[in-house]
Design goal:
Blueprint (H helix, E strand, L loop, with lengths): L2 H11 L9 H27 L8 E2 L14 E3 L1 E4 L7 E5 L5 E9 L5 E15 L8 E8 L5 E2 L5 E5 L1 E14 L5 E9 L2 E13 L4 H27 L4 H19 L2 H14 L7 H20 L5 H18 L10 H45 L13
Antiparallel strand pairs: 1-12, 2-5, 3-4, 4-12, 5-11, 6-10, 6-12, 7-8, 7-9, 7-11
Helix pairs in contact: 2-3, 4-6, 6-7, 6-8, 7-8
């Protein structure tokens, strides 16, 4: 056999890497992307345009109108009441080394709670202090049974400097059932100036039945789409080890998505301490690790799919996971979390490509050695594995 024929035969035997998807796979992918886009639009429309909470609520703040003076409140510095207007409190601070405040600890009912905080606020000549939070602010911070304050959660109703006319502020804070109480703070935190607050209200509000029904339908839709996507990816992976790690990572992602922030934070902190890591943002680190591992496993398990398809799909999954956090009581979607997801995804795909490249090089080297031995055996007049005394 000539060298040209031998080269053609080796090329025919060499396995080809598939660089494109079949028609059926493309149709399935298009259907999944379309369903995901539709669910995303419906989710955003539900939260933007459908009223979520009841108009009336159950007041939980003691002495909110200051009829009994400052009874039930913790005070510091120059805090006074306007005698001409009921419920109008004034805070003044001219020493940037001091904090002037009104604070009250509020016990919450059992279970998940939605708290609506509202107030009319005005400030005059407020100058920011040394830290970004040294301003005239009104906040609501969650406090655990051990007394730990969860400042990583969204807390601020208003955060003001300069001079502003009286304006109405209102926000609803979602508090998980694992948090027994919150602290309402009204303060000039190491910032000089004058602050007025009136018509203060803190009330527990219930979700509207129509909103809860729509949210339940959307959660069911997202769950079905997620189960279908995981099933399709799982079917395309033949390696049992990769399959097992993929299922474990997906379960970890689902658990972390709906796990209360208190437990999730404790778990991430314990892992960081175990590995001796000092993490400035443990939540972002968790995002990057989980999505990086998912991208790594799926790329290793499905190396024939286009790399750009892996990258785009995982970026979309990261965005969808942020959308799903709208349904959780203690999570909020954020661009920073998605950037952490994208960083982990990119790192996972790079590691997978390096591993696949090394695997292909090793396979090529083994095949070259095998072909060399075959050529040497043929040149010696014996087929591989044939003993010399068997020759005729």
């Amino acid at each position: 056999m000539s060298r040209t024929a031998e080269a053609a035969e080796r090329a025919a035997r060499r396995p080809r890497r598939r660089r494109s998807l079949s028609g059926a796979a493309l149709r399935a992918l298009a259907a999944a992307v379309g369903a995901g886009a539709l669910l995303a639009l419906l989710t955003i429309a539900t939260f933007l345009y459908l009223p979520r909470h009841q108009a009336e609520g159950r007041a939980v703040l003691a002495n909110a109108d200051f009829r009994a003076g400052f009874e039930g409140w913790q005070t510091a510095g120059l805090v006074t009441l306007d005698e001409t207007e009921l419920g109008h409190a004034m805070l003044q601070n001219w020493d940037p080394a001091r904090a002037v405040y009104l604070r009250q600890t509020v016990a919450l009912p059992d279970g998940r709670t939605s708290l609506r905080l509202s107030a009319d606020i005005a400030v005059r000549r407020v100058e920011r202090g040394a830290e970004p939070w040294h301003t005239a602010r009104v906040y609501l911070v969650q406090q655990t049974a051990d007394g730990d304050q969860l400042w990583h959660r969204e807390t601020a109703l208003a955060d003001l400097i300069g001079t502003t006319e009286r304006q109405h502020f209102e926000a609803v804070f979602e508090v998980p059932g694992t948090v027994p109480e919150v602290i309402l703070g009204i303060e000039l935190s190491f910032a000089v100036g004058h602050m007025d607050i009136a018509n203060l209200e803190l009330a527990v509000v219930d979700e509207r039945p129509l909103f809860r029904l729509c949210a339940t339908v959307l959660v069911a839709g997202w769950s079905l789409l997620g189960f279908w996507a995981v099933h399709q990816v799982y079917r395309g992976i033949r390696a049992r080890t990769v399959r097992g790690w993929l299922l474990a990572t997906v379960a970890t992602l689902a658990l972390g998505l709906f796990m209360p922030a208190l437990y999730r934070q404790a778990l991430i902190d314990a892992l960081a301490d175990g590995f001796g890591l000092d993490l400035p943002d443990p939540d972002a680190f968790g995002h990057a690790v989980v999505f990086g591992l998912l991208a790594l496993l799926v790329r290793i398990g499905r190396p024939r799919d286009p790399l750009l398809l892996h990258l785009s799909c995982w970026l979309l999954v990261g965005a969808l996971s942020e959308v799903l956090q709208l349904f959780t009581p203690d999570r909020d979607p954020g661009a920073a979390d998605w950037l952490a997801d994208a960083t982990g995804i990119s790192a996972g795909l790079i590691l997978a490509e390096l591993g696949l490249f090394a695997q292909r090089r090793l396979a090529a080297m083994r095949k070259a050695q095998k072909d060399k031995k075959a050529r040497e055996a043929k040149a010696a007049g014996a087929m591989p594995g044939e003993a010399p005394f068997m020759r005729r």
